Amino acid sequence: MVSLSEAYAIAVGHHRAGRMGEAAGVYRAILDADPRQADALHLLGVLAGQTGRNEEALSLIAQAIALDPEAADYHDNLGSLRRGGGDVARAAAQHARALALEPARAKAAFNRGLALGDLGRVGEALGCFRAALRIDPGYGAAALAAGRLLAGGPEPLAAERWLAHALSLAPDSADAWAAVGRARLAAGEADGAVTGYGRAARLRPDDGAALSNLAMAVLQASGALPEFPCADRPEASWAEPLARALDLFLAALERGAGEVAEAALFRTAVLTIHRGMMDDTRLERIARRARDRLRRAPGDGAAAACIAHGLYRRGRLVTASRLVRRCLRGWSEEAIRADPQAAKWRQVDARPVFLAALAGYRPRITEAGERSMPVPPAAEGGAILLVSVDSGYWRRFGGWFLSHALKDPAGDRVHVHVVNPGAEDCADLDRRCAAQAGRLSWSLERIDLSAHAPGAETTYYACARFFVALDLLDQTGAPVFITDIDARCTAPLPPDLRNGTGWDLTIMRDRRARGPFDDIIVSFLGVAPTAAGREFLGLVGAYIGWFFDRGRAAWTLDQAAPYAVLHDWARRGRTPRLREHEFLRLPWFDFPVKDEG
């Protein structure tokens, strides 16, 4: 016959070894023999709580307290169960009862501090943590909890002191180092956060959450995140930390990190692509995970964008177009416009059936306003530089742009198109044209875009230059070069471009593969007065008009349209005479130049 003390020893041995079923069996056997065994009720309740049966655990420990109301550990464990179930106020009271029964119980002081912290009673919580350390100077968990409670609050130095104390007691505590990372991140010390989270990740290399935290700290320290810019971290320095963050997120997900890390991976990938710092190999790894994500969450726009970017880089733009359209089914117009990637990718339509229909499409938007040309281009002359602006941009950059574009007597002609100008703008342009007769011309357009989405005015004047370019091409028979009014002309165009000889289209590409809406940069795009040039402008105008006519136009439409048209021509074997130049290495313009003064 096994004695009661021997039965307890066997049960506790099973319990400590994690053999929960065996331990529960022995506890129940003790209770079958004597239902008033409070310790067996208590320990069976603790076991129930450890295996997720909270209601049963609460009942069993409450029964134990009814039998022995003076047992401090019963009250302490009941308090922890109540805190875990969200009943924080009663939990704090239960821990207080445990302390009243056993004032030297460090664990009860610590647990009461946790509950009070949950209630926002920070001062009282810190008092409990101090009490726990007075009772047991080696109770590092209390110092750690205090540091965590203060991290991100108004006293960062106090948090650091508590965490330093926790690390003095446990130098290799991954939890303490992670808390250091969190405290420093909250204090805006991103480099210190990398140190703290990095140490935690090295101590727990298989902990996905630790790697994810480190990735976020690396991102913030890089200065690449728009919400955390770092003036001392120039854009050229972002490539390495962005790559490291992506690799850390991938490693975190392989080690069980959850949806927060997954969402951060795709957002960081999109940012890296946009910055032109994503290599093909890393993008393919991310796209594979994004495909898995889309099977679970078909509406994840960032995941879809990662896949679409990968397809675009492999020349499969038609597939990318179809993927994005499937992903966006069911999205509201507001949701699409709130997601920059969704809004941009929706405007990239490379489907053959869509592009084939453009040849016969007559955009309604081109008839919606009134266009006139107060000062037309001179009958003779070389190439025309075309800029299209609104009143605000003309006033901000107009004089500056012309001072560079017209400085050389043998330079190019300039045509300014202004959407909805004011009387002052019209008078200003008339005066400037009179002073630069034969070199400067202008046109205007009055159009009401109030029925369109916010931002349509800016998108429209960027797109209207394609409509105007076709008019100028027909009127003058000279090449037309679309550019931006905040670009600085550094030299006249060479004779072959000015005369339009030997080419149909001249484009500027961004070789960093940032996306089909950033591949052809319309800060410099030339069209020769050839059949191919006119056809190209007509198709691009129809493409742009299709989106405006349906209220779907958004920023970068002016760059998505020419890319999609040229992609379709290449797919069908159409080969216009093409001149290509590289963005930021163009010998005749500097991009971008913005006078913030």
From TrEMBL:
<feature type="repeat" description="TPR">
    <location>
        <begin position="174"/>
        <end position="207"/>
    </location>
</feature>
<dbReference type="Pfam" id="PF13432">
    <property type="entry name" value="TPR_16"/>
</dbReference>
<dbReference type="InterPro" id="IPR019734">
    <property type="entry name" value="TPR_rpt"/>
</dbReference>
<dbReference type="InterPro" id="IPR037919">
    <property type="entry name" value="OGT"/>
</dbReference>
<dbReference type="InterPro" id="IPR011990">
    <property type="entry name" value="TPR-like_helical_dom_sf"/>
</dbReference>
<dbReference type="Pfam" id="PF14559">
    <property type="entry name" value="TPR_19"/>
</dbReference>
<keyword id="KW-0802">TPR repeat</keyword>
<protein>
    <submittedName>
        <fullName>Tetratricopeptide repeat protein</fullName>
    </submittedName>
</protein>
<feature type="repeat" description="TPR">
    <location>
        <begin position="38"/>
        <end position="71"/>
    </location>
</feature>
<feature type="repeat" description="TPR">
    <location>
        <begin position="106"/>
        <end position="139"/>
    </location>
</feature>
